[in-house]
Structure formats: structure tokens, C-alpha cells
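Bench notes, afternoon.
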Amino acid sequence: MIAEPSADEKPVILSASQIAHGFGKQGLRTEVLRGATLELRRGEVVALFGVSGSGKSTMLAILSGLMMPDRGTVQVLGQDLFSLSNRHRDDLRRKEYGFVFQANNLISWLSARQQLEMLLQWGIGFRLRRATMISNEILGKLGLADRANLLPSQLSGGEQQRVAIARALVKRPSLLFADEPTSSLDWHNGQKVMDLLRQIAREDGTSVLLSTHDQRVREMSDRCLYLNGGVVQSEERR
């Protein structure tokens, strides 16, 4: 049997160096990130901790290319993220990224299954039959099989969050960014989400970075990073 490579042997998928970013005008400016540096390797689940206002959401937005930093570089899959044109950066996000935001951003007139089917059909080009099969599989793993035909307004807040997570996972992205993905979930459903994140990391090689206050996530992550004073100060390796 071939041993699984250690964390340090896995290839680096994303590398961010000296990321700095602030908000507000000169004199009233708040510097949120002051030179944050981190790496993500293929197939690992990394939790990013920090108090409210420490810059976790800003860091995720920059790493995913949704926000330009004031300074610093981000390398993704061998490409300089902010040297790409807007079109190529959008293409990279569409093909390689999955997102889970604090706001679920579900489309009100689409059922839980249709939220996923639409992404697979229009984003990747799958035929409806294949898109439906894959969507049902992911929803089932998150305990939503019997909720697949319901609209967001017919789902609880926790169920909506799980649909948003399923939508992010359905195309098996290379990178998954999740902002507080378990915050509205009870222990049982939070465990389901983390188990599925670990499964796609192991089986598909997806690199998962999630920002969180949820201490339950600590034991279910491969590494824990801590944002403090605008930099990544420390980490734990499991």
C-alpha cells in the first residue's frame, strides 16, 4: 500500500505573501491586514480563527480574488491572481473555486435541488440528468434528500446554510472558501458538514479554507491558523 503523502509533501495550491489591506480614508483609515502570509496545500482543511474585526472575511475575499489587496501577492495554481485580466480571474473562480458566504445568497424561486442543478448546467455544461444525479447525491450527504424540492422560504436557516454548502461543493472545486460555514448549525449538522468537507479534501484533493469562531472545528481541521494584529501569528498542525 502506498502511504498518503505527509502535509509538507503535498503540493501548494495557493500561496499568499505579505497581504495588507485597510478601509477608510487617510486619517480615519483602519488597517485590517498588515502583512498576512499563508499557504494552502492540496487536500487539506484549514481553519482560520480570529476575533470579530480581525480580518478573516477580508482575507478570504482577497484570496478568492473578490477584493484587491493594498499590497501583497496571491499565487493560485501557479498563476499570479492579480496579474490576470478580470475575465481570466472570473474564469478561474468559476472553474476552480467554491464559495460559502455568511449570507446564503440562495435564489428565492429555485428549489434546493435547482440551486445546484443550475450551477452544474450553466457553469460547467452538464446535461440536466447528470446535474440532477450529482445534486441529489450531495444533498443526501448533507441530510437534505427530503428537502430537495423546497424553496428557500420553506427551509429553516440551518437548512438554507446546508444548501449553500452543497452548492459550493457540487462542482468539486480545487479550492473552497467558507465564511463561518457551521455558525448556524447544531452539533449534528455541523459534524455532517465538516465530515463532507474532509471527505472532498481526501477524495477530490480540494483545499478548504474556512474562517470561523466555532471551536468545534478545531479538532476536525488539519491545521488551525490565527489572525491577530493583521498577521497570521501562529498555527497548530494535527
